[in-house]
Amino acid sequence: MSVEDISDIWAKDATIDDTNLAQAAKRIPELHNKYYTMYYKEALKVKKLRYDYKELELAKREWLDGSMAEEDLKDHGWKPNPKKIIRQDLDKWIQADKDIIRLSLRIDYHSANADYLEDIIKTIHSRNFIIKSMIDVLKFQHGEY
Length: 145
Description:
With about 140 residues, the chain is an all-alpha fold. The chain has a domain at about 1-10 and about 45-135. The protein is built from six helices and no strands. The longest helix is centred in the first third of the chain and has 45 residues, at about 20-65.
């Protein structure tokens, strides 16, 4: 799910019908469940991708320094690294690796989605106060204060 998809869904759910505040208040648990489920899935994706990153980084290290076993090379579909890379340059080579970069971008993408969903959940938590404030304004406008 993209940020745009989340934004489109939230644009519909974020509105509060000021003509039916009781119904809006009833929807708070439903909205919380909906967005927390999405957040949980994104957070789990991030966690898994971070573990995948660690495994990939270790594999790239072994590949770059020439210590990777033949069997592991075959499993990854890689050929032995023809370059001689000194230990102090390994980090530079790993950070420039296309597979590492691609996975880092996926982690960043899903982290941004999770952060956005977390912000939506915080807004949903404050929805009770917003609805109460709207009720107070209506009472004030009708001279009930």
